[in-house]
Write a structure and sequence with these properties.
The complex is a heterodimer of chains A (305) and B (379). Chain A has 305 residues and is mainly alpha-helical. Chain A is 70% helix and 0% strand. Chain A contains 11 helices and no strands. Chain A is globular, with a radius of gyration of 19 Å. Chain B is an alpha/beta fold and 379 residues long. Chain B contains 12 helices and 9 strands. Chain B has helices at 2-10, 26-33, 61-70, 100-112, 215-225, 229-243, 250-259, 262-265, 279-292, 305-309, 314-322, 326-335; strands at 15-21, 38-40, 49-53, 76-80, 92-94, 156-157, 168-174, 186-192, 195-203. In chain B, helix 2 links the parallel strand 1 and strand 2. Helix content of chain B is 31%, strand content 13%. The chains are: A mainly alpha (305), B alpha/beta (379).
Chain lengths: 305, 379
């Protein structure tokens, strides 16, 4: 019964969240570009309808199966990631004692999914986008692993429910100040956004989705938004105390906190420049990974005392 | 019912337009792209309308046809201040002084409501070279790896100029109407993954009006390459407004650009000209020019394009190209020989960059036998 209720909650979160993210994106683009293109509430729907009403072009000799599977996997992984997230004390779809590891598996499979999306059209720009994403996605995954292990330390468990419970007195975002900023790298890269959009970049005319049109394009864009919601919920759970909060029910608190993370990610998308792939790769390995080590050390020392 | 609702919603979206910009077409096209009900797109696949704006060279007509065939159905073509190609049935032409915006919006509505027929392919849907059944194994050539399936030579591994990883090198055409390149600029590049090994110019950029040296316009092109699309649109609107003599809050705009880390994001030491003048310094100089209300004037001498781009990663190569003024770019193109020089070793400066030798012209870019898939994107 609770599992059924939680699964419904997951779908509700993903659906409402994806629409909300599209509206926020529209608003942020309008603010940053100084141009309004209709109401922010309806513009994403019109654009989606315009995509859906057009032909999905097939390229020359595509890998048709993987072209279809990539967005499906993207959506599925976003939903799977949420199954280990508690929406309340007893509201979790899958009470896995190694929930953080399950989320880690979702992250690593995402590298495969985005690569396949760039591989399948059999065209240079999507393929360059795919390779770029792998080069950046791999070290960022390591970064997020350190951060998640640090978050597991005070809970003394890899169970996401325990990680939330350990934040009853103090949230991880305060206890481990470097954690959330480093984890946001993963959010931007998983959803191909702004400063970490190495898969679908503007210099490649859309990278892995450069050849896509019609319903296929709409599905991929939707999957990006859905993953954004899933990531934001995970970040709110691990660093902002998840469902914990006074008066309001757990799912509502989780929704509010996730929306805050999501809004921050959408803002960062439109206000930060993206540097070239070799430079970003150098920065992650030589600067951000050592910082993540320090963060892990700090979290360990705090957990000991 | 559901389909009708979908169409009614789609009709309210901005018209997705892929601009093909010819000589003198840049400024009117950019002004049109800023309209509320028109949206310029980065890839032909996202477009419903192909807009040819300005005079295009006759040997680019085939490139226009090829782009046209890559648009998903239903699609339409508008010729704005441009002479339609022969063989186009009842072309939709708009005079230079005409209202292209109204035409774009009308045709988009008609396409969505299926009140007009979608345009059929211009080119035959077949491989550009005969290859099936040719050679001992039917692979289109001699020897194990000598085939040219789909008219493309097999990509073979080669010494890497970056990190010693021997990746396959392949040759592909880019331009002349790829939005990240200046309009008209057409290249034949030898790439190794995302790394430019050799660059040969097929056609230099088209001449444009004064907008091209407006610093805010140049800045918008760089900022777009850094994935700050919304900010790039704001800079473009600022550039167009300044051309129209309107007042623009330039200091506030430049502050936003700096805060976004645009300067930091440009790799240091990229495409150095003269005495250590790199891309970042050139962009800084434009920002100074923007504050003083000047147009950009380049002082430095430029090497041939091939020298400038060799060894750069794709995004860096585009940043380097877009950091040159049109004059510098034209000179760099003139110094670079035609595509024959793309062959390794031989790179004597030659003229005649605008001639495209026959026979090789459609390699890598032709139609496959399955659909309009095209390797040389934005051909």
């Amino acid at each position: 019964m609770t599992m059924f209720a939680t699964l419904l909650l997951i779908y509700l979160f993903l659906a409402v969240g994806a629409y909300g993210a599209a509206v926020l994106d529209e608003a942020m683009v309008g603010w940053q570009s100084g141009m309004r293109r209709g109401s922010v509430w309806s513009a994403p729907l019109y654009r989606a309808a315009a995509m859906l009403s057009r032909q999905s072009v097939e390229t020359e000799k595509p890998d048709a199966m993987n072209a279809w599977l990539a967005p499906v996997w993207y959506l599925a992984l976003a939903a799977i990631g949420l199954t280990v997230v508690p929406f309340g004390e007893a509201l979790v779809a899958y009470d896995l004692s190694t929930g953080l590891v399950a989320w880690g598996a979702v992250e690593s499979l995402m590298v495969v999914v985005i690569f396949l999306h760039g591989w399948s059209p059999n065209s240079p720009f999507p393929l360059i986008g795919a390779y770029r994403y792998v080069a950046i996605g791999l070290p960022i995954m390591l970064l997020s692993m350190f951060v998640l292990i640090a978050a597991a330390l005070p809970a003394q468990s890899l169970d996401v429910r325990e990680v939330v419970a350990s934040q009853r007195d103090i949230w991880n975002v305060i206890r481990q100040p470097l954690g959330l900023p480093l984890f946001l790298f993963l959010g931007l890269s998983l959803t191909l956004r702004g400063p970490l959009d190495y898969g679908d970049s503007a210099d490649l005319a859309g990278g892995t989705s450069a050849e896509e049109s019609g319903a296929a394009r709409a599905l991929w864009q939707l999957a990006r938004l859905v993953m954004l919601v899933s990531f934001s919920t995970m970040a709110a759970t691990v660093f902002l105390g998840g469902y914990l909060g006074p008066v309001l029910p757990g799912p509502v608190w989780l929704g509010i906190k996730s929306a805050a993370v999501l809004a921050l990610l959408v803002l960062l998308t439109h206000i930060l420049a993206r540097t070239s792939t070799p430079r970003m790769m150098g920065a992650i390995w030589k600067l951000f990974l050592p910082i993540a080590f320090v963060a892990l050390l700090q979290a360990g020392l705090v957990a000991l005392t | 019912m559901a389909v009708t609702l979908l169409r009614r919603l789609a009709a309210r979206a901005p018209a997705p337009v892929y601009p093909v910009i010819g000589e003198g077409g840049l400024e009117p096209a950019m002004r049109l792209g800023l309209a509320e009900d028109v949206g310029f797109v980065a890839s032909v696949r996202q477009a419903a309308i192909l807009l040819i704006c300005g005079r295009i060279d006759n040997h680019h007509r085939e490139a226009v046809d090829r782009l046209h065939d890559q648009l998903p159905h239903p699609r339409a073509t508008i010729w704005w201040d441009a002479e339609p190609s022969p063989g186009w049935e009842a072309p939709l032409a708009v005079a230079a002084s005409g209202d292209a915006r109204a035409t774009v919006v009308d045709i988009w509505q008609a396409l969505v409501r299926e009140e007009t027929d979608s345009e059929s392919d211009r080119l035959p849907d077949k491989p550009p070279h005969e290859w099936r059944g040719v050679g001992p194994n039917g692979q289109g050539g001699k020897g194990m790896m000598g085939g040219t399936p789909y008219g493309r030579p097999m990509a073979m591994s080669d010494e890497d100029i970056r990190d010693g990883l021997k990746l396959d090198r392949y040759e592909a055409g880019f331009g002349p109407f790829l939005p990240v390149l200046p309009p008209g600029l057409e290249f034949k590049l030898v790439l190794q993954g995302d790394l430019v090994q050799h660059a040969a110019v097929v056609h230099p950029p088209y001449r444009q009006g004064p907008l091209v040296t407006e610093p805010l316009y140049m800045l918008s092109r760089i900022v777009r390459l850094l994935d700050l699309t919304a900010l790039a649109d704001r800079l473009l609107a600022g550039a167009v407004a300044r051309r129209a003599g309107e007042t623009v809050d330039t200091p506030a705009l430049l502050k936003t650009v700096r805060r976004a880390g645009a300067l930091v994001a440009i790799p240091p030491g990229l495409a150095v000209l003269g005495d250590g003048n790199d891309t970042r310094q050139r962009v800084e100089a434009w920002m100074a020019a923007a504050e003083e209300g000047r147009h950009v004037q380049a002082k430095h001498e430029v090497p041939p394009i091939g020298e400038l781009l060799a060894g750069l990663e794709w995004q860096e190569a585009l940043l380097a190209l877009n950091s040159l003024t049109p004059d510098q770019l034209t000179r760099a193109c003139e110094k670079t020989g035609s595509e024959a020089d793309a062959d390794r070793g031989a790179a004597p400066p030659q003229q005649g960059h605008s001639e495209q030798p026959q026979g090789q012209s459609d390699r890598h870019r032709g139609h496959g036998d399955r659909g309009p898939g095209d390797r040389g994107h934005g051909a």
